[in-house]
Amino acid sequence: METTTMTIPAMQNEAIAIAVAKALESVDGVDSVHITLAHSRARVAFNEALAAPRDLRAAVETAGFVVADDAPARKSCCGGCGG
C-alpha cells in the first residue's frame, strides 16, 4: 500500500471535496481517500500494483479540477507517520 498527498487548489467547499473524493475512489486500486479542506488536500492510499499517482491525477483532472504540480511528489508507505 502506498499513500500520496495531492493539493487541489479549487477544493474550498464540501461539494467540491465530495466530487474530488468520488473521482479518486473511482480509480481501481484506491483503498481510501482523506480530504482536508483547510489545506485543499487529498491523501490517497492505493495499491501501487493497480494504480499510480498519474492515474489519481488524471481522475481529478477528468472531474474538472486542477492538481497542483507538487501534488504527487509527496508519497510514503502508508501515510501514518507522514514520512
From TrEMBL:
A GO MF annotation of the entry reads: metal ion binding
Q: Which organism is it from?
A: Massilia eurypsychrophila
Classification via Pfam families: HMA
Instruction: Note the PROSITE patterns from the entry.
Output: HMA_2
InterPro entries per record:
HMA_dom, HMA_dom_sf
Do you know which Gene3D superfamilies this protein is assigned to? 3.30.70.100
Q: Where are the transmembrane segments?
A: none
Designated name of the protein: Metal-binding protein
Annotated HMA domain ranges read 2-68
